[in-house]
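--- STAGE predict ---
source: upstream dedup step, 1 unique chain passed
mode: sequence only
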Amino acid sequence: MKRSISAMIIILFVNTAFALSVDDYFKTMGEVYFRFSSSSVFSLNEISRIVSISKIKDNRVYAYANEKEFENFISLNIDYEILEHPGYAARIDSALKFSLNLFSAQYPSYNEYLEMMSQFQFQHPDICQIYEIGTTVLGRKILCAKITGLTDIFFKPRVFLTSTMHGNEPAGYAMLLYFIEYLLSGYGTNPDVTKIVNSCEIWINPLANPDGTYWSGDESVFGARRYNANSVDLNRNFPDPEEGEHPDGNQWQPETTAMMDFAKDTMPVMSANYHSGAEVVNYPWDTWERSHPDNDWFVFISRSYADTVQLNSPQGYFDDFDNGITNGYAWYRITGGRQDYMNYFQHCKEVTIEVSHENFPHNPFLYWTYNRQAMLEFISQSLTGVCGIVSCDCCASIKAKIEIPERDYDNSFVFSESQTGRFFRPLLPGFYNIKISAPYHYEKQLEGIDVVEKELTSIIVVLEHAEKGDPTADRIVDIFDVILCLKMAIGLDEMDLRSCDINEDGFIDISDVILILRMSIGL
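--- STAGE serialize ---
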């Protein structure tokens, strides 16, 4: 995992004088950092398809690019300025060993990080387990802490916090390590911490791109880069609601598939993705100009986070854009971002939280103190809304779709878990009509469900299974039922014996299709 000796010599040189050429950067970092005027004849939406925009400040766009991306950018004939890479600009004091008890410390080595995560579980085995949810291109571990209290509460929403998918933005990395320690050491003694840990299942991934963060070696974050070891921006590598499965033209990276698999298996209700480069909560969408169906909820929780941070920090911190919050597309469009992927494809309410203008703030502990209370309150937002269990009239739990007809579009609905039937839907206080539906079952409509602040309104729903000959569950036997039964018979749809095995021989075949056809025409 160590870079070459020649690369390390250049890194040492850069620490005292910024003198690298573009070619030098590509040889040592695999990426270049530059800026250009935002008044270019090309729109930022066009340019963001080519390079990875980091921020916009004073009418200048700051961006990263790998060698291929930079060649495409140069072809646009836009004037640009090469900047010192933030990974080389980091002022890291190697004499300061990272410690959760030394609040002047900076950032851990990779091995210190592994040891800390291991110790969290060793010291608090009853409430903390560490999972390896994947490995990076270079074989480093992607770790996640699961923290939940010693309670048998069935309705515990899962909340996911993650950081540093851009390897040279480690402020959130350190913050989440402090947060894990705060939750574990405060459990049973701090009432606010105890309540949150007892009421929720909290998953924390402090470091999503270890290869980028430790690009120059495991001992230090100095020389960290934005992209992963394949020179891919992980926050442009996810399926996109508008641009399809591979909006960046790259195959899904190991780090990307690890997050996708984790989200699919864990089904978090809410999520926050920590970055650096600004001081703001960014809410969806990033890819679309139109608002998210739950825009009111996103604005509320973003405003709450920003306001709480401002109450616990010096004046002037966390007040970018609309006093600390912004819609993603209104800032600048990105495609392939994790935030939109989680919201659209995983039905998880995710925001992006930028915690520092600097990539490497000298004392990340300060930023942790600024954000600590807001992080607790963010998790607590999962405890306002609707939860419940959906089962079939045969008593089995089922995967059902839970939607609010007057507001849900763009995949803002949620699903119940197939194994438990459990679901969660964060909502603002108010009255809601809710529709519950599942394949081969008759849907149910619930009206006037009352959601109150800081409470989960629970509902128990039993769906009646569709009768024989009516797999579409519309209470009419017609040609659509014939077609669906035929699709089951030839393996194009999941089989449902209760509605389509008309002759009760344990199969669905052409004889059942014929029988439903006869039923549909009254024979």
